[in-house]
Write a structure and sequence with these properties.
heterotrimer, A mainly alpha (about 425), B alpha+beta (about 475), C alpha+beta (about 150), A: three-stranded antiparallel sheet, two-stranded antiparallel ribbon, 14 helices, B: six-stranded mixed sheet, five-stranded antiparallel sheet, 16 helices
Chain lengths: ~425, ~475, ~150
């Protein structure tokens, strides 16, 4: 009877424990990075220290203000710590830039939280969201710059960013609006009403086409995955989902035969060893890296991740597998899975359909994005050029990941709180 | 739609995502455990080179410590130096940034760069020491002095010499010609020529070359006869015989009159052995050849070719041809040296090996090879009979040019017809296998001279004699 | 030397990451168990959890959740109380929980067998903090601020 209560009381009771472990990881990783200099590199120490402060500070903000699910931040804190250590190791100069992006990302995270909480009811219009997407496309098409063969970058005062990173979030809102207020999509064609779901389908395919034209096959795949899952969940008739799957398979086949670029990608995926120096270069270097670390990795700084092309962006996962081991890679996959588990749980518990759909869509976006890029890097599926959330180098990626997180956090915190308040007033009567 | 349905579909999506992620994890694990093994050695994997950069590659030395390969500093990098140039090209191979690694440099790459199943504490020790890590040295079974003699004896003729210690299986010398200079600068200079030459200088004939054995195969035919109880066969040799419509004649169509196994071996009578083979039958003959290792594979330090023989369904003429070492028979010099060693070693062929020890520095042994039995070719009594026949061959038969003064030598000559032999221009291979001293053999050899057109007794036997006597002198002084 | 540290570090790193994952999964699992069959919303509000007695495994689980909404909540054996505890060692009106704004206070109402707050005897009005355990009779009540 005199024992201290150890069972989980509220969500926040055992909040600090895991964060301390993240702190430990930061100390080990950045300590190692510091020791790699002659004699000591001070920047990692400062960076590690700043990161420590950051994770505890944000943790405290969430804890103190009860801003919803604390595990979201805990997991992301671990991911960005691993990611940041790797980024600095790969390029100290860019590592610092990436850290700045993390700071901005966290800011966005908190800002989005506040904004969404107050605005959540307002912007539910289907056409608003679709219009936004079209606008993004138009701007990129007209003003866009081409980088690495894809014309999907915008230059703004010295910074380049990818509008598609923003687009995929807007897409989720668009889909959520479509499935919850389908009546807005009613169109009459020679007297007969067309089922809204076909309108939606048309709009989505057009969108996918836009992405395909811009050579953003990864994003097109992502959009389609999210779309398909949306219609599976929200459309009573499962056959509709099956039809869509069939259509896309057909389209994919046609694309494979006609678009040489796609055929090359698939051939390279099936056998990159034929042209190890050319088309197969990226994926083979990635496989060499993954294979050379063993289960525990070659150790931070001890491997040769720089032999991998695009290692800081698309192939960051391969670098992690090389230096932190297969076990490190598996841990990252598990962390993402726990993240999406929390997101799904949130989606299950929200009662308002629109917000349920948004939570669900954002979660599936993270799920598919992670699967597509990791799958491509380990040669499970053909390689596409999308980023790994929180780990890949790049401002657009980091900001969009944190924005997504902020939205999920907002949904978990504010929304449920409001619902609880409604019930409380019900109680008191 | 009902909320419950939506929620359950959401759950389905979660499970689906779980399956996808599970696939990722399984895929990664499978790759690590299985999938990566075939690809990690790919030339495009720059890590192999990078790892090497940091280590001083180990040396390769002969059994007495003569340096055959070492890494020397040069300007701001390192160079792999082969002081004996061509002599070991077909054993050690080369270690080139451009052309890759071959032969021993490839097979023992891990040891040479010091990466091996080291004990945990040794690994820690290595990490604590500040000096450039060194790879391990390979001490070969080869005797450099003997290798020089063997090479000298081949001269400018194409062919191979393989010398083994019959009791242990150690390879004392192994030469293949033509050879080439494996030093990097020369390699690059000559690469195009080497690749395109019809002479195939890059082919290690001792291990990879396959040739019809000709009469040296008769020792196997004899062994098959002895063990099948057909060794008491006698016939009248009139210089030629007809088997199933095909004529088999002796060299120069020489007639030997009444002839038994012992005499037939001594004079190398084709007539006798062609007829004998019919008595033995295809299946027993092939079985005995297999006992000697023909068609069989074994683990070896270098890539090697399996020897070949026809199958059980062969007709009478092919059987006769096989009995005298022609037909579909194709053997490597290494294989025949092993046969000679087997007879010398009371019928047991020992596993041949090239690397004696893997050493940390001189004398500090990490791994040592042990003599191992490979095939039980014939029974000791059969071996004794074969040995006595082979002694006759050298004493008074076709192999008199293999005699060494003061030493009793056993051997068998061979002159093998091949695809290039014609009526007018003989390009027959010259073979000799043998061992010495007969009563307590210290060395067994096989000598092959490609397409010489000279008889084995004439051209190959003297080479064998020189090599064997050189070794006997060398081992005396040890 | 650096190599040695690197080698040690990589094992340490992997261990820590997996302990982390394990802890998170464990916490999530307890959350799920806690909420099985519970009114999901009730746990959002400040509430008291009635804990089952210490089992053989040494862990307690939650038997019931009581949201605290009124300014004054009585706990005791009497049926008048908000939380009725039919334990012989519990007085008819044993303890009172006061809600003042956002704060909660617990006070022992001169019960026969006394009340323990986190193991220490409760002799005056004390503010309740998240996680506090109020023990009366043979029963443990754990206070939670809520906010799932």
């Amino acid at each position: 009877m005199g024992m201290k209560a150890k069972s989980g009381t509220s969500l926040y009771t055992h909040f600090w424990g895991p964060l301390h472990l993240v702190a430990l990881i930061i100390m080990v990783l950045f300590g190692q990075l510091a020791l790699m200099g002659n004699p000591i590199d001070f920047i990692p120490l400062i960076m590690g220290g700043a990161l420590l402060l950051l994770i505890y500070f944000v943790g405290w903000v969430i804890r103190f203000n009860r801003l919803g699910d604390p595990y979201l931040w805990t997991i992301v804190a671990m991911l960005i710590s691993l990611g940041q250590a790797m980024q600095y190791r790969l390029s100290p100069v860019n590592g610092v830039k990436q850290f700045n992006w993390i700071l901005i990302g966290v800011l966005i995270y908190l800002v989005v939280y506040v904004l969404y909480a107050s605005l959540h009811g307002r912007f539910r219009s289907v056409f608003f969201h679709y219009g936004l997407l079209i606008a993004l496309f138009a701007v990129t098409l007209i003003f866009g710059t081409e980088i690495n063969g894809a014309r999907n970058w915008l230059k703004l005062g010295g910074y380049t960013f990818q509008p598609s990173e923003l687009g995929k979030i807007v897409f989720v809102f668009f889909m959520a609006a479509c499935v919850t207020t389908p009546e807005r999509l009613r169109v009459k064609w020679s007297g007969r009403e067309i089922d809204p779901k076909f309108i939606m389908m048309g709009l989505v395919y057009v969108l996918m086409g836009f992405f395909a034209i811009q050579r953003e096959f990864g994003t097109a795949m992502l959009i389609f995955g999210v779309y398909l899952t949306f219609i599976y969940v929200f459309e009573r008739d499962i056959l509709f989902t099956v039809y869509n799957l069939g259509i896309v398979t057909l389209l994919g086949f046609v694309a494979f035969k006609t678009v040489s670029h796609i055929e090359v990608r698939v051939d390279t995926w099936l056998n990159p060893w034929i042209d190890t120096g050319g088309t197969g270069y990226q994926i083979t270097q990635s496989l060499f890296a993954i294979g050379s670390g063993g289960f525990f990795g070659s150790g931070l700084g001890m491997g040769y991740p720089k032999f991998i092309p695009a290692v800081r962006t698309d192939f960051i996962f391969a670098a992690i597998c090389e230096e932190l081991g297969i076990l490190g890679g598996i841990a990252v996959i598990m962390l993402f899975f726990i993240l999406l588990y929390r997101g799904m749980k949130l989606a299950l518990r929200i009662e308002d359909r629109y917000m349920k759909a948004v939570a669900f869509g954002l979660t599936m976006t993270i799920a598919y994005q992670t699967f597509i890029i990791i799958g491509g890097v380990i040669k499970l599926i053909p390689l596409t050029g999308i980023t790994l959330p929180f780990l890949s180098y790049g401002g657009s990626s980091m900001v969009s990941s944190f924005a997504t997180l902020g939205l999920l956090q907002a949904l978990s915190g504010q929304i449920l709180r409001k619902e609880a308040a409604q019930i409380e007033t019900g109680y008191n009567q | 739609m009902k909320l419950d349905t939506i929620n359950s579909r959401i759950l389905h999506s979660l499970v689906f995502a779980g399956v996808l992620f599970g696939l990722l994890i399984t895929s990664l694990t499978w790759f690590e455990l299985r999938g990566k093994n075939d690809i990690m050695g790919n030339a495009f994997n720059k890590r192999l080179i990078a790892e090497e950069e940091e280590v001083l590659r180990g040396r390769i030395i002969d059994r007495n410590g003569e340096v055959l390969a070492e890494t020397l500093p040069s300007e701001n990098s390192k160079i792999r130096n082969y002081p004996e140039k061509r002599l070991y090209a077909h054993i050690i191979g080369y270690n080139s940034a451009v052309y890759g690694k071959t032969l021993l440099e490839a097979k023992y790459n891990s040891e040479l760069i010091g990466k091996s199943n080291l004990e945990f504490f040794q690994q820690i020790q290595k990490m604590l020491s500040e000096e450039t890590p060194k790879g391990y040295d390979l001490r070969l079974t080869i005797s450099h002095a003997l290798q020089v003699v063997a090479r000298e004896q081949l001269g400018d003729r194409n062919g191979a010499v393989v010398a083994l210690d019959p009791k242990t299986g150690e390879i004392l010398a192994m030469v293949s010609t033509p050879d080439y200079n494996p030093n990097a600068s020369k390699l690059e200079e000559n690469w195009k020529t080497l690749i395109e030459s019809e002479n195939s200088p890059l082919l290690p004939r001792a291990t990879m070359g396959l040739y019809p054995p000709g009469s040296i195969f008769k020792v196997i035919t004899a062994a098959a006869a002895i063990e099948a109880g057909k060794a008491d066969y006698t016939t009248v040799d009139q210089g030629a015989t007809v088997i199933d419509g095909m004529t088999f004649s002796n060299a120069g169509e020489k007639a030997h009159g009444d002839i038994d196994l012992h005499k037939a071996m001594t004079v190398s009578s084709n007539v006798y052995f062609a007829e004998l083979s019919q008595k033995i039958g295809a299946s027993d003959l092939i079985a005995k050849a297999k006992d000697a290792g023909i068609t069989k594979s074994f683990d070896f330090d270098l890539p090697r070719s399996d020897s070949r023989i026809g199958d059980n369904g062969m007709g009478k003429t092919e059987l006769a041809a096989t009995g005298i070492g022609q037909g579909k028979l194709m053997v490597s010099p290494l294989q025949m040296a092993m046969v000679a060693a087997g007879i010398a070693n009371n019928g047991t062929i020992m596993q041949p090996y090239l690397v004696k020890t893997v050493e940390k520095e001189e004398g500090n042994i990490l791994r040592e090879s042990e003599a191992e039995t490979l095939y039980d070719m014939v029974s000791p009594s059969t071996a004794a009979q074969l040995k006595s026949m082979m002694i006759s061959v050298v004493e008074e038969g076709t192999g008199t040019r293999a005699q060494i003064s003061g030493v009793q030598v056993a051997g068998k000559t061979g002159t093998a017809q091949n695809e290039k032999s014609t009526e007018s221009d003989s390009k027959d291979h010259a073979w000799f296998i043998g061992f010495a001293p007969a009563e307590d053999p210290k060395i067994a050899v096989a000598v092959l001279l490609e397409y010489r057109g000279e008889g084995g007794g004439r051209a190959a036997a003297p080479v064998a004699a020189k090599v064997m006597s050189a070794w006997l002198k060398l081992s005396e002084s040890q | 030397m650096v190599e040695l540290i690197s080698m040690a570090a990589k094992y340490i790193l992997v261990v820590i990451i997996y302990v982390f994952i394990y802890k998170i999964v464990q916490l999530i699992y307890t959350d799920i168990r806690m909420l099985m069959g519970r009114d999901s919303v009730a746990a959002l509000l400040p509430h008291l959890k009635l804990m089952t007695p210490m089992g053989t495994k040494g862990a307690q689980s939650i038997a019931e959740i009581y949201p605290i909404l009124r300014p004054e909540s009585l706990i005791g054996r009497s049926k008048k109380c908000l939380i009725v505890l039919p334990d012989p060692y519990v007085s008819s009106e044993h303890v009172r929980i006061d809600k003042v704004g956002d704060k909660f206070f617990v006070e022992d109402l001169e019960s026969a067998n006394g009340t323990l707050l986190n193991g220490k005897k409760l002799d005056r009005r004390v503010e309740l903090k998240d996680g506090d355990k109020v023990s009366l009779g043979r029963i443990d009540l754990v206070f939670s601020e809520g906010g799932r």
